[in-house]
């Protein structure tokens, strides 16, 4: 039988799929609430007579009908079901391992006090209701000032409240997730005598956030101190981000650590192995390595994808300890990557006229010569050829032009394969001096014109 901690990790993957279905149900409930409320508001507007002369009263009447959905009963049910799910760990263990249960009063308190990004669900909804009242009043005044008809005003209100419906859905889904996180952590703390540490488990797909990609697989001890890293403990949705799909799983102690004698000799079919090891499932970093270049680029973006495929960065290099995502310039400085030469820094002599022409803000040109050469060895006569091409380009400003396929970038060179009639554009971003390249399967108009002139 698999180790107990591995069984927990696998159970939580299945549980996360159930959470997605629960969230879909909540999403539909919120949508119906708003659709009904919008229909009621439209009906009220259509019944109004002479709105222009009674605008203040109309606004006051409609504001009274504006509300946000009350999902407290749904949240309580969700919280109780989550605790029932956690008690199923005992069946996996073949023994009553998690014996402490949260009383109903504690569950209610956690539901009412659960926070997402520093505020309770109730506080978020209060803010949302205040916002939709302001938006309704503003839009009605704009519509009346434009001389819109009553049906047009009704349509205007429906349109403006669509944003509030989306916001309410995000609050409901994230609030449900935050409550799940709070219930889980309170349950684990109530049973901390059997817990060794906590592990962050993210969803392995391209929608996972940069923060969760980096946190996947990290562990903390029972006092929430990092184990082998410097990232602070975070409860998914509570202090990660909206619509977070990650979860915290417990890693239990071994039988020996629990002080239970004789369990290692118990029949293997009646219990799972309690070895105290952290389950070595695939992290997001490991998973991404198995994906296609297209999937990696879709997940990370082109610049970070190239660095990741070269093995120069991991998911945890992409964020700060505060959870902020680093831009490419900050990443280059942090990891000391991309710069040319053995010293990691190479200064090109860049004419002032070119610097001003393309708005280049640095004397340091960065890029991965090795990656570019290894990707397209047929295009260059060795790595030194790439450096020479760039130097030549800076001495021939006439061939520099804006890059149509790289917003804000400039093409500074072209390299061709005469036999296959393939070519690549080499470009530069003026803000940070980062070199990029664009693959082309055939010569472009510039190159055809150039070759024609050579003949």
TrEMBL record:
Pfam families: Phage_Mu_F (PF04233). It comes from the Bacteria. InterPro entries: Phage_head_morphogenesis_dom. Residues 136-249 form the Phage head morphogenesis domain. NCBIfam families: phageSPP1_gp7. This is Phage head morphogenesis domain-containing protein. It comes from Campylobacter concisus.
């Amino acid at each position: 039988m698999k180790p107990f901690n591995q069984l927990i990790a696998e159970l939580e993957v299945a549980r996360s799929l159930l959470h997605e279905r629960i969230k879909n149900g909540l999403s539909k409930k919120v949508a119906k609430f708003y659709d009904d409320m919008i229909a009621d508001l439209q009906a009220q507007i259509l019944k109004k007579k002479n709105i222009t002369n009674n605008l203040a009263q109309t606004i006051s009447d409609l504001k009274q009908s504006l509300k946000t959905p009350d999902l407290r009963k749904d949240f309580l049910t969700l919280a109780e079901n989550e605790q029932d799910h956690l008690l199923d760990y005992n069946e996996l263990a073949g023994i009553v391992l998690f014996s402490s249960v949260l009383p109903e009063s504690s569950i209610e308190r956690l539901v009412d006090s659960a926070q997402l990004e520093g505020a309770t669900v109730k506080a978020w909804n209060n803010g949302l209701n205040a916002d939709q009242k302001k938006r309704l009043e503003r839009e009605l005044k704009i519509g009346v000032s434009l001389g819109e008809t009553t049906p047009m005003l009704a349509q205007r209100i429906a349109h403006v409240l669509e944003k509030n419906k989306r916001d309410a859905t995000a609050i409901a889904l994230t609030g449900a997730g935050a409550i799940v996180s709070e219930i889980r952590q309170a349950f684990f703390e109530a049973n901390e005598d059997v817990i060794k540490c906590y592990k962050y488990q993210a969803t392995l797909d391209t929608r996972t956030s940069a923060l969760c990609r980096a946190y996947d697989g990290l562990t903390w001890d029972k006092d929430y101190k990092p184990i082998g890293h410097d990232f602070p403990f975070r409860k998914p949705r509570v202090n990660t981000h909206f619509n977070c799909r990650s979860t915290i799983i417990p890693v239990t102690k071994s039988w020996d650590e629990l002080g239970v004698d004789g369990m290692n000799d118990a029949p293997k079919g009646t219990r799972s192995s309690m070895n105290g090891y952290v389950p070595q499932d695939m992290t997001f970093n490991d998973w991404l390595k198995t994906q296609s270049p297209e999937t990696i680029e879709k997940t990370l973006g082109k610049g970070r994808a190239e660095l990741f495929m070269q093995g120069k960065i991991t998911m945890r290099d992409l964020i700060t300890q505060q959870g902020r995502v680093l831009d490419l310039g900050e990443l280059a400085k942090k990891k000391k990557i991309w710069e040319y030469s053995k010293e990691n820094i190479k200064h090109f002599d860049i004419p002032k006229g070119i610097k001003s022409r393309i708005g280049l803000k640095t004397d340091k040109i960065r890029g991965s010569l090795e990656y570019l050469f290894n990707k397209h060895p047929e295009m260059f006569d060795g790595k030194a050829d790439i450096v020479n091409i760039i130097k030549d380009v800076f001495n021939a400003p006439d061939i520099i032009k804006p890059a149509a396929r790289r917003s804000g970038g400039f093409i500074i060179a072209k390299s061709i394969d005469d036999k296959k009639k393939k070519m690549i554009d080499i470009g530069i971003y003026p803000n940070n001096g980062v070199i990029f390249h664009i693959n082309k399967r055939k010569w472009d108009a510039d190159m055809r014109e150039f070759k024609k002139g050579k003949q």
